[in-house]
Amino acid sequence: MSNKRNCEKRKNGFLGRFASAEDRKGGQFYTPGCIVKLLVEMIAPYKGRVSHPCCGSGGMFMQSERFTEKHGGRKGDISIYGQESNPTAWRLSKMNLAIRGIEGNLGV
User: Fold this and answer.
1) Domain containing 25: what range?
2) What's 42's domain CATH number?
3) How far is 91 from 70, CA to CA, in rounded Å?
4) Strand ranges of the sheet holding 48-52, from the earlier edge strand across to the other edge
5) Position 26 confidence tier, pLDDT thresholds 50, 70, 90
6) pLDDT tens across 14-24, in order?
7) Cβ distance 55 to 83 under 8 Å?
8) Residue 9: per-residue pLDDT
9) Can you tell me the mean pLDDT for 66-85?
10) Which residues pair with 80 in a beta bridge?
11) Which ranges of 1-108 does DSSP label H, i.e. alpha helix?
12) CB within 8 Å of 83: residues ≥ 6 apart
């Protein structure tokens, strides 16, 4: 298994455990990847701005970049804007953007 694939698998496992712990507290909720992918297919972010007011770990941003590249676009054709009230989820989103080389504005 490649390092990138292994890292992705570990990250997804961590996010799943994080989501389970948060759900028990009645706070944040984890949106399954298949739902995020469907939403991205519906909004079709070829170019422009992707804004998510409760971005969690940033899954919609990753799917949006994949969508753009899959349809002939380049990384950076979309601008990423988001916010997240949970500090741990906010850090996860920043990490997800950073490890993929995606620039985004998630506020402070």
Assistant:
1) 3-105
2) 3.40.50.150
3) 27
4) 48-52, 78-82, 104-105
5) very low
6) 666 665 555 55
7) yes
8) 66
9) 93
10) 50, 104
11) 3-24, 33-43, 59-70, 87-99
12) 52, 53, 54, 55, 90, 106, 107
